[in-house]
Protein backbone atom coordinates (compact mmCIF):
# COMPACT_ATOMS: atom_id res chain seq x y z
CA UNK A 1 0.00 0.00 0.00
CA UNK A 2 1.38 3.40 -0.95
CA UNK A 3 1.90 5.52 2.18
CA UNK A 4 -0.31 8.57 2.54
CA UNK A 5 1.00 11.89 3.71
CA UNK A 6 -0.78 13.66 6.39
CA UNK A 7 -0.73 16.74 8.36
CA UNK A 8 41.44 12.70 -0.63
CA UNK A 9 40.13 15.93 -1.31
CA UNK A 10 39.24 18.27 1.46
CA UNK A 11 35.83 18.17 2.97
CA UNK A 12 35.00 21.69 1.81
CA UNK A 13 36.10 20.92 -1.74
CA UNK A 14 33.96 17.82 -1.72
CA UNK A 15 30.93 19.59 -0.32
CA UNK A 16 31.19 22.15 -3.07
CA UNK A 17 32.12 20.05 -6.05
CA UNK A 18 31.79 16.31 -5.70
CA UNK A 19 28.75 14.20 -6.35
CA UNK A 20 27.65 11.12 -4.51
CA UNK A 21 27.87 7.82 -6.33
CA UNK A 22 24.79 5.90 -7.28
CA UNK A 23 23.07 4.35 -4.28
CA UNK A 24 22.01 0.78 -4.59
CA UNK A 25 18.60 0.35 -6.16
CA UNK A 26 15.96 -0.30 -3.56
CA UNK A 27 17.90 1.54 -0.87
CA UNK A 28 17.21 5.01 -2.16
CA UNK A 29 13.47 5.43 -1.69
CA UNK A 30 11.25 5.49 1.34
CA UNK A 31 9.96 2.07 2.31
CA UNK A 32 6.16 1.80 2.18
CA UNK A 33 4.57 1.93 5.61
CA UNK A 34 1.80 3.53 7.59
CA UNK A 35 2.26 7.12 8.59
CA UNK A 36 0.81 9.25 11.34
CA UNK A 37 -0.72 12.65 10.88
CA UNK A 38 1.32 15.72 11.76
CA UNK A 39 -0.70 18.68 10.58
CA UNK A 40 -3.03 18.76 7.63
CA UNK A 41 -1.28 18.09 4.33
CA UNK A 42 -3.17 20.83 2.56
CA UNK A 43 -4.37 20.78 -1.01
CA UNK A 44 -2.86 24.11 -2.03
CA UNK A 45 0.28 24.89 -3.93
CA UNK A 46 2.74 25.96 -1.23
CA UNK A 47 5.97 23.91 -1.15
CA UNK A 48 6.63 21.60 1.79
CA UNK A 49 9.11 19.26 3.43
CA UNK A 50 8.52 15.56 3.97
CA UNK A 51 10.55 14.14 6.83
CA UNK A 52 11.06 10.41 7.36
CA UNK A 53 11.41 8.99 10.86
CA UNK A 54 12.63 5.64 9.54
CA UNK A 55 15.49 7.28 7.66
CA UNK A 56 16.75 8.93 10.85
CA UNK A 57 16.52 5.59 12.62
CA UNK A 58 18.36 3.81 9.80
CA UNK A 59 21.11 6.42 9.68
CA UNK A 60 21.61 6.29 13.46
CA UNK A 61 21.95 2.52 13.30
CA UNK A 62 24.46 2.86 10.46
CA UNK A 63 26.55 5.22 12.60
CA UNK A 64 26.34 2.84 15.56
CA UNK A 65 27.51 -0.08 13.42
CA UNK A 66 30.38 1.97 12.02
CA UNK A 67 31.58 3.09 15.45
CA UNK A 68 31.30 -0.15 17.37
CA UNK A 69 27.98 0.81 18.95
CA UNK A 70 29.22 4.02 20.52
CA UNK A 71 26.37 6.11 21.88
CA UNK A 72 25.43 9.06 19.68
CA UNK A 73 25.15 12.69 20.70
CA UNK A 74 22.99 13.89 17.80
CA UNK A 75 23.76 17.43 16.68
CA UNK A 76 20.58 19.36 15.86
CA UNK A 77 22.03 22.86 15.62
CA UNK A 78 20.67 25.49 13.24
CA UNK A 79 17.07 24.34 13.43
CA UNK A 80 18.04 20.68 13.05
CA UNK A 81 20.00 21.40 9.87
CA UNK A 82 16.97 23.16 8.42
CA UNK A 83 14.46 20.38 9.02
CA UNK A 84 12.91 21.79 12.19
CA UNK A 85 13.87 21.28 15.84
CA UNK A 86 10.29 20.62 16.90
CA UNK A 87 10.03 17.79 14.37
CA UNK A 88 13.49 16.23 14.37
CA UNK A 89 14.12 16.48 18.11
CA UNK A 90 11.27 14.17 19.16
CA UNK A 91 12.19 11.72 16.38
CA UNK A 92 15.78 11.42 17.57
CA UNK A 93 14.66 11.31 21.19
CA UNK A 94 12.97 7.96 20.54
CA UNK A 95 15.94 6.31 18.80
CA UNK A 96 17.80 3.90 21.08
CA UNK A 97 21.22 4.62 19.58
CA UNK A 98 20.87 8.33 20.37
CA UNK A 99 22.03 9.11 23.91
CA UNK A 100 21.42 12.84 23.73
CA UNK A 101 21.15 15.91 21.54
CA UNK A 102 23.49 18.87 21.08
CA UNK A 103 22.81 22.47 20.05
CA UNK A 104 24.78 25.71 19.93
CA UNK A 105 22.11 28.22 20.95
CA UNK A 106 20.23 28.42 24.25
CA UNK A 107 16.92 28.99 22.48
CA UNK A 108 17.37 25.72 20.60
CA UNK A 109 17.78 23.82 23.86
CA UNK A 110 14.58 25.35 25.23
CA UNK A 111 12.68 24.53 22.04
CA UNK A 112 13.75 20.90 22.30
CA UNK A 113 12.43 20.66 25.85
CA UNK A 114 9.22 22.40 24.78
CA UNK A 115 8.89 19.80 22.01
CA UNK A 116 8.99 17.01 24.59
CA UNK A 117 12.60 15.85 24.26
CA UNK A 118 13.54 14.00 27.43
CA UNK A 119 17.08 12.83 26.73
CA UNK A 120 20.11 14.89 27.78
CA UNK A 121 20.65 18.10 25.82
CA UNK A 122 24.09 19.67 25.57
CA UNK A 123 24.42 23.38 24.90
CA UNK A 124 27.77 23.71 23.12
CA UNK A 125 27.59 27.51 23.12
CA UNK A 126 27.98 30.04 25.91
CA UNK A 127 25.14 30.87 28.27
CA UNK A 128 24.33 34.03 30.20
CA UNK A 129 22.88 34.43 33.67
CA UNK A 130 19.31 35.34 32.59
CA UNK A 131 18.93 32.16 30.56
CA UNK A 132 21.23 29.97 32.62
CA UNK A 133 18.74 29.33 35.41
CA UNK A 134 16.03 28.16 33.03
CA UNK A 135 18.48 25.94 31.16
CA UNK A 136 19.66 24.29 34.37
CA UNK A 137 16.11 23.87 35.68
CA UNK A 138 15.25 22.14 32.42
CA UNK A 139 18.28 19.87 32.79
CA UNK A 140 20.26 21.22 29.87
CA UNK A 141 23.96 20.39 30.14
CA UNK A 142 26.16 23.48 29.93
CA UNK A 143 29.55 23.76 28.25
CA UNK A 144 32.31 25.23 30.38
CA UNK A 145 35.40 26.91 28.97
CA UNK A 146 35.50 30.30 30.67
CA UNK A 147 35.67 31.48 34.28
CA UNK A 148 32.46 33.56 34.13
CA UNK A 149 30.42 30.54 33.11
CA UNK A 150 32.04 28.42 35.81
CA UNK A 151 31.10 31.06 38.40
CA UNK A 152 27.56 31.16 37.01
CA UNK A 153 27.28 27.39 37.35
CA UNK A 154 28.41 27.60 40.97
CA UNK A 155 25.75 30.22 41.74
CA UNK A 156 23.04 28.25 39.97
CA UNK A 157 24.02 25.09 41.79
CA UNK A 158 23.72 26.84 45.14
CA UNK A 159 20.33 28.30 44.20
CA UNK A 160 18.96 24.95 43.09
CA UNK A 161 20.61 22.94 45.82
CA UNK A 162 22.20 20.41 43.46
CA UNK A 163 25.22 19.94 41.25
CA UNK A 164 24.89 21.21 37.69
CA UNK A 165 26.01 18.72 34.99
CA UNK A 166 28.57 20.27 32.64
CA UNK A 167 30.86 19.33 29.76
CA UNK A 168 34.33 20.87 29.48
CA UNK A 169 34.98 22.28 26.01
CA UNK A 170 38.61 22.18 24.86
CA UNK A 171 40.08 24.18 22.01
CA UNK A 172 42.75 21.92 20.54
CA UNK A 173 43.46 24.06 17.47
CA UNK A 174 40.17 25.25 16.00
CA UNK A 175 40.54 28.66 17.73
CA UNK A 176 36.80 29.18 17.71
CA UNK A 177 35.28 28.01 20.99
CA UNK A 178 36.56 26.26 24.10
CA UNK A 179 39.42 26.81 26.51
CA UNK A 180 42.88 26.47 24.87
CA UNK A 181 44.22 23.02 25.64
CA UNK A 182 47.46 24.37 27.10
CA UNK A 183 45.45 26.25 29.76
CA UNK A 184 42.81 23.60 30.30
CA UNK A 185 44.25 21.64 33.21
CA UNK A 186 44.10 24.44 35.82
CA UNK A 187 40.58 25.25 34.64
CA UNK A 188 39.49 21.62 34.91
CA UNK A 189 41.02 21.47 38.36
CA UNK A 190 38.99 24.51 39.42
CA UNK A 191 35.75 23.08 38.04
CA UNK A 192 36.38 19.71 39.67
CA UNK A 193 36.81 21.45 43.02
CA UNK A 194 33.47 23.23 42.60
CA UNK A 195 30.92 21.07 44.41
CA UNK A 196 28.06 22.77 42.55
CA UNK A 197 29.38 21.43 39.22
CA UNK A 198 29.47 17.85 38.04
CA UNK A 199 31.75 17.15 35.09
CA UNK A 200 29.71 14.82 32.93
CA UNK A 201 31.79 15.00 29.77
CA UNK A 202 34.62 16.65 27.86
CA UNK A 203 34.74 17.44 24.15
CA UNK A 204 36.54 19.19 21.29
CA UNK A 205 36.01 20.14 17.64
CA UNK A 206 38.24 19.06 14.74
CA UNK A 207 39.45 21.45 12.03
CA UNK A 208 38.84 18.68 9.47
CA UNK A 209 42.36 19.05 8.15
CA UNK A 210 43.62 15.51 7.58
CA UNK A 211 47.18 16.36 8.60
CA UNK A 212 46.29 18.39 11.68
CA UNK A 213 43.36 16.42 13.12
CA UNK A 214 45.57 13.65 14.58
CA UNK A 215 47.57 16.32 16.41
CA UNK A 216 44.35 17.78 17.80
CA UNK A 217 43.33 14.35 19.05
CA UNK A 218 46.75 13.85 20.62
CA UNK A 219 46.39 17.14 22.50
CA UNK A 220 42.92 16.21 23.70
CA UNK A 221 43.96 12.77 24.93
CA UNK A 222 47.10 14.16 26.55
CA UNK A 223 44.97 16.59 28.55
CA UNK A 224 42.54 13.81 29.49
CA UNK A 225 45.41 11.65 30.69
CA UNK A 226 46.90 14.43 32.80
CA UNK A 227 43.52 15.27 34.29
CA UNK A 228 42.84 11.69 35.25
CA UNK A 229 46.28 11.36 36.84
CA UNK A 230 45.19 14.14 39.16
CA UNK A 231 41.97 12.33 39.91
CA UNK A 232 39.82 14.69 37.85
CA UNK A 233 36.92 12.74 36.41
CA UNK A 234 36.06 13.94 32.92
CA UNK A 235 33.08 11.71 32.27
CA UNK A 236 32.30 10.92 28.64
CA UNK A 237 34.89 11.98 26.07
CA UNK A 238 33.52 12.93 22.65
CA UNK A 239 35.22 14.45 19.63
CA UNK A 240 34.09 12.81 16.37
CA UNK A 241 31.63 14.72 14.22
CA UNK A 242 30.40 13.37 10.88
CA UNK A 243 33.72 14.00 9.13
CA UNK A 244 35.81 12.22 11.75
CA UNK A 245 33.55 9.16 11.63
CA UNK A 246 35.12 8.34 8.28
CA UNK A 247 38.58 9.88 8.64
CA UNK A 248 39.78 9.24 12.19
CA UNK A 249 38.63 6.03 13.84
CA UNK A 250 40.73 6.73 16.93
CA UNK A 251 38.49 9.72 17.62
CA UNK A 252 35.39 7.63 18.37
CA UNK A 253 36.33 7.64 22.08
CA UNK A 254 33.38 7.15 24.47
CA UNK A 255 30.70 8.76 22.31
CA UNK A 256 30.38 10.22 18.81
CA UNK A 257 28.77 13.54 17.93
CA UNK A 258 27.53 13.50 14.31
CA UNK A 259 25.12 15.86 12.65
CA UNK A 260 25.12 15.75 8.85
CA UNK A 261 25.14 11.97 8.44
CA UNK A 262 22.03 11.54 10.58
CA UNK A 263 20.14 13.59 8.02
CA UNK A 264 21.35 11.32 5.25
CA UNK A 265 24.13 13.37 3.64
CA UNK A 266 27.83 12.55 3.32
CA UNK A 267 30.80 14.62 4.53
CA UNK A 268 33.39 13.26 2.08
CA UNK A 269 33.70 11.61 -1.31
CA UNK A 270 34.80 8.31 0.18
CA UNK A 271 32.23 8.18 2.97
CA UNK A 272 29.42 6.78 0.83
CA UNK A 273 31.60 3.75 0.13
CA UNK A 274 31.77 3.06 3.86
CA UNK A 275 28.18 3.30 5.03
CA UNK A 276 24.73 3.41 3.46
CA UNK A 277 22.72 6.49 4.40
CA UNK A 278 19.21 7.53 3.40
CA UNK A 279 18.26 11.19 3.02
CA UNK A 280 15.72 11.89 5.74
CA UNK A 281 13.72 14.49 3.84
CA UNK A 282 12.18 15.54 0.56
CA UNK A 283 11.72 19.11 -0.66
CA UNK A 284 8.46 19.00 -2.59
CA UNK A 285 6.07 21.24 -4.52
CA UNK A 286 3.16 21.00 -6.93
CA UNK A 287 3.22 22.26 -10.50
CA UNK A 288 1.34 25.57 -10.74
CA UNK A 289 1.68 26.33 -14.45
CA UNK A 290 2.30 24.38 -17.65
CA UNK A 291 2.84 26.33 -20.85
CA UNK A 292 4.04 25.78 -24.41
CA UNK A 293 6.89 28.06 -25.42
CA UNK A 294 7.25 29.14 -29.03
CA UNK A 295 10.68 29.34 -30.66
CA UNK A 296 12.29 32.52 -29.34
CA UNK A 297 10.32 32.63 -26.08
CA UNK A 298 12.56 33.08 -23.04
CA UNK A 299 12.44 32.00 -19.40
CA UNK A 300 12.87 33.94 -16.14
CA UNK A 301 15.15 36.82 -15.22
CA UNK A 302 18.03 37.50 -17.55
CA UNK A 303 16.50 35.39 -20.35
CA UNK A 304 19.21 32.76 -19.92
CA UNK A 305 17.00 30.15 -21.57
CA UNK A 306 15.50 30.78 -25.01
CA UNK A 307 13.40 28.09 -26.68
CA UNK A 308 14.77 26.91 -30.02
CA UNK A 309 11.68 24.87 -30.85
CA UNK A 310 8.18 24.42 -29.41
CA UNK A 311 8.84 23.35 -25.81
CA UNK A 312 6.59 22.71 -22.82
CA UNK A 313 7.75 24.14 -19.50
CA UNK A 314 6.38 23.78 -15.98
CA UNK A 315 6.57 26.20 -13.07
CA UNK A 316 7.04 25.09 -9.45
CA UNK A 317 6.19 27.52 -6.62
CA UNK A 318 9.49 27.03 -4.81
CA UNK A 319 12.61 29.17 -5.06
CA UNK A 320 15.70 30.39 -3.31
CA UNK A 321 13.66 32.04 -0.54
CA UNK A 322 12.45 28.53 0.31
CA UNK A 323 15.98 27.14 0.26
CA UNK A 324 16.31 25.85 -3.32
CA UNK A 325 19.54 27.46 -4.45
CA UNK A 326 19.80 30.02 -7.25
CA UNK A 327 22.53 27.98 -8.94
CA UNK A 328 20.33 24.90 -9.37
CA UNK A 329 20.12 25.96 -13.01
CA UNK A 330 23.70 24.76 -13.47
CA UNK A 331 22.53 21.19 -13.89
CA UNK A 332 19.99 20.19 -11.28
CA UNK A 333 16.97 18.09 -12.14
CA UNK A 334 13.53 17.71 -10.58
CA UNK A 335 11.56 14.48 -10.24
CA UNK A 336 7.93 14.71 -11.37
CA UNK A 337 6.18 11.37 -11.40
CA UNK A 338 8.76 8.89 -12.64
CA UNK A 339 10.67 11.31 -14.87
CA UNK A 340 13.44 13.82 -14.31
CA UNK A 341 13.19 17.32 -15.77
CA UNK A 342 16.06 19.79 -15.89
CA UNK A 343 15.90 23.20 -14.26
CA UNK A 344 16.01 26.08 -16.76
CA UNK A 345 16.19 29.83 -16.37
CA UNK A 346 17.12 31.68 -13.21
CA UNK A 347 15.68 30.27 -9.97
CA UNK A 348 13.80 33.21 -8.50
CA UNK A 349 12.76 33.81 -4.90
CA UNK A 350 9.53 31.84 -5.18
CA UNK A 351 9.64 29.94 -8.47
CA UNK A 352 11.62 27.30 -10.34
CA UNK A 353 10.97 26.41 -13.97
CA UNK A 354 11.73 23.06 -15.58
CA UNK A 355 11.88 21.99 -19.20
CA UNK A 356 9.20 19.38 -19.95
CA UNK A 357 10.01 18.86 -23.62
CA UNK A 358 8.16 18.67 -26.93
CA UNK A 359 5.27 16.74 -25.40
CA UNK A 360 3.06 17.79 -22.51
CA UNK A 361 3.83 15.09 -19.95
CA UNK A 362 3.14 17.18 -16.84
CA UNK A 363 -0.11 18.68 -15.56
CA UNK A 364 -0.92 21.38 -13.05
CA UNK A 365 -1.05 19.85 -9.58
CA UNK A 366 1.54 17.17 -10.30
CA UNK A 367 3.85 16.61 -7.32
CA UNK A 368 7.55 17.29 -7.78
CA UNK A 369 10.56 16.41 -5.64
CA UNK A 370 13.51 18.79 -5.85
CA UNK A 371 15.70 17.10 -3.21
CA UNK A 372 15.19 13.65 -1.75
CA UNK A 373 16.11 9.96 -1.68
CA UNK A 374 14.21 8.67 -4.70
CA UNK A 375 16.85 9.10 -7.42
CA UNK A 376 20.58 9.68 -7.30
CA UNK A 377 20.12 12.86 -9.35
CA UNK A 378 18.22 14.54 -6.49
CA UNK A 379 20.21 13.26 -3.51
CA UNK A 380 21.43 16.13 -1.30
CA UNK A 381 25.09 15.64 -2.19
CA UNK A 382 24.30 15.37 -5.88
CA UNK A 383 22.20 18.54 -5.84
CA UNK A 384 25.03 20.32 -4.02
CA UNK A 385 27.59 19.12 -6.55
CA UNK A 386 25.52 20.16 -9.55
CA UNK A 387 24.66 23.54 -8.05
CA UNK A 388 28.26 24.13 -6.99
CA UNK A 389 27.40 24.66 -3.33
CA UNK A 390 28.02 23.01 0.02
CA UNK A 391 25.71 20.17 0.95
CA UNK A 392 25.17 22.08 4.19
CA UNK A 393 23.48 24.80 2.14
CA UNK A 394 21.09 22.25 0.67
CA UNK A 395 19.78 21.60 4.18
CA UNK A 396 20.48 24.62 6.35
CA UNK A 397 19.10 27.13 3.84
CA UNK A 398 15.67 25.51 3.92
CA UNK A 399 13.12 28.07 5.04
CA UNK A 400 11.75 27.51 8.56
CA UNK A 401 8.36 28.55 7.12
CA UNK A 402 8.11 25.41 4.98
CA UNK A 403 5.30 23.15 6.26
CA UNK A 404 6.60 19.81 7.48
CA UNK A 405 4.88 16.48 6.98
CA UNK A 406 6.33 13.55 8.83
CA UNK A 407 6.31 9.91 7.79
CA UNK A 408 6.24 7.79 10.94
CA UNK A 409 6.92 4.08 10.99
CA UNK A 410 3.88 1.97 11.74
**CATH architecture term of the domain at 52-273:** Alpha-Beta Barrel
Class from helix and strand fractions: alpha/beta
Inertia-based shape: elongated
| Distinct helical segment count | 12
Mean pLDDT: 91
CATH class category label of the domain at 52-273: Alpha Beta
Report the span from N to C terminus.
13 Å
CATH topology of the domain at 52-273: TIM Barrel
Low-confidence stretches: 1-41
Classify the helix fraction into a percent range.
25-40%
Radius of gyration: 23 Å
CATH superfamily of the domain at 52-273: Alanine racemase
Write up what this structure looks like.
The chain has a domain at 52-273: TIM Barrel (Alpha-Beta Barrel), CATH 3.20.20. It has twelve helices and 19 strands. The chain has helices spanning 11-17, 53-66, 77-81, 85-93, 106-114, 129-137, 147-160, 184-192, 213-229, 242-247, 380-387, 391-396, and strands at residues 48-52, 72-75, 98-103, 121-123, 140-144, 164-171, 179-180, 197-203, 236-238, 281-286, 289-293, 298-299, 305-306, 311-316, 333-336, 339-344, 352-357, 367-371, 404-407. Strands 11-14-17-16-15-18-10-1-19 form a nine-stranded mixed sheet. Strands 2, 3, 4, 5, 6, 7, 8 and 9 form an eight-stranded parallel sheet that branches. A two-stranded antiparallel ribbon has the order 12-13. α6 crosses α7. The radius of gyration is 23 Å and the shape is elongated. Residues 1-41 have low confidence and may be disordered.
Amino acid sequence: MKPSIRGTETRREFLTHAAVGVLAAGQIGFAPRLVAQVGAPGSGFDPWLEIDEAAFRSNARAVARLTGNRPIMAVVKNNAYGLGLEVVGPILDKIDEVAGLAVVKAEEAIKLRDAGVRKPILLMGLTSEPEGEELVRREVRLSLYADPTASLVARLGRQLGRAVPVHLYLDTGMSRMGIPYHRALPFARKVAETKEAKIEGCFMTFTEDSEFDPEQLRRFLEFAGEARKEGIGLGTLHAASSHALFSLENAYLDMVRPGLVLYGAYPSSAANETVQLTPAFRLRARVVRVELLRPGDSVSYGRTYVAERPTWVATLPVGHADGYHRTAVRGCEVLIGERLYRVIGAVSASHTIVEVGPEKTVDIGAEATLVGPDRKEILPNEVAARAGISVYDVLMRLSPLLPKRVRYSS
